[in-house]
Amino acid sequence: MQATDPQENEPPDPHKPDRLETPPLLQHAISKSIWIIAWPGMVMTLMQTINSFMDRFFVGGLGPAALAATGVGGHLMFLNMTVAMAISMGATAIVARMVGARDFDTMYHAARQSFGLSLALGAVISVLAFLFLPHALTWFNLKPDANRLAHEFITPALWGVPAMFVMFGVSGTFRGLGNTRPPMYANIVANLVHVAGAWTLIYGRYGFPKMGVAGAGAAMAASMWVGAAMLWAQQWFSEHRRAAVPELPNREWVQRIMRIGVPSSIRSLIFVTSGSVFTGLLAQTVQSTNAIAAMQIGLTAEAIAFMPGFQFAIAASALVGQCLGAKDEKRAEKSGWTASWMACGVMTAVAILFFIFADPFARIFTKDPEVIALAVSYLRINAITEPLLAFGMVLSGALQGAGDVKKPLLSTFFTQLVLRVPLTYLLAFGLNLQTNGAWIAMAISSAASGLTMIYLFSRGSWKKAKV
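Predicted structure:
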């Protein structure tokens, strides 16, 4: 006699998918599933890149000091993002695993706890950020005018931190579900608000006061609130409405989410710390502020390559988590490798373009000949290691989706701090290569990251990780 499901006689719940149904993403070929998750992120990335271009273009008109100031401000905003990323990564890993296992009660509980935790931490972090802002800016050793402008930019931008936490938390749930379209829609609208706000407020158009870099910060904050509101609305009016009501965080769930999220957050913090130290070292080179301005142009350009790679990493994270939840380890492993090769193809193609057209690209943002030369050097040196960077990014995402977060953390610690920082000092000052030495150190550490992650993923111990 065949066993029956005790719930089979219950009326169907439109907000609670069939537990026996195979997860939609596991019904397709792996490459198609990766593309289903990744393409909305590609569109979102394109909008973010255009937004970044326009922001740099608007701010670039204020001079190199303004570019350097917003670059430093961006580092500090990313520091706040590291905590939000912890919640997002924890939510993605747990939700994806529960989708694969068809455990929807736990899935919705994880989503609501992540939402509540995002709200609570967003409020706390924003207060702390305001309190410690003056001390944080002193590290970068900026010239007085750039330091003043950095403060003017970051102060209004910090008002958007609570909304940023909500965006990360809710996006983490959607990504765990394998549905990246709602974050795409929210980010498109948020980016449009950002560009329009920057255009209006930086130069004082349409009757608004001329705010300079403070206008760029205010536009960033406004865009975050719009994005957060739109993400929540999409969740509320979807089949996953149960996830749209935040719960008061409890200790058990905070520990469960943060057990996965904290190592991911520390990893992001290492990136920020390494970036801050790297920026501080650039400030001590002969080129000083011009070197920092060139790096911002280079990073804006490189985002075209590594941001699509990041979307493949998100796809790998969701698919690996769902496959492990469904007890399909072979498909989980193949998903990681397939996503990596797809990212490698895209990032390599873009790197080739920027190697060839580095000079005309740099001239879009500045007319300063030294900044242009330094930006061209950055793009061409770092383009060489872009393929390995793709593997490093995507395989890190795959391990995080599996819940094996310690390996990416240790790899990042080694490549970003143990390798990059001393190597930058050696090449820039020890060998007197100055800014070009710093670019070379950055490229070498990126290559090392890719090789390390290839080795760690190949070992396969991540298949036994618990969430």
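Summary: The radius of gyration is 22 Å.
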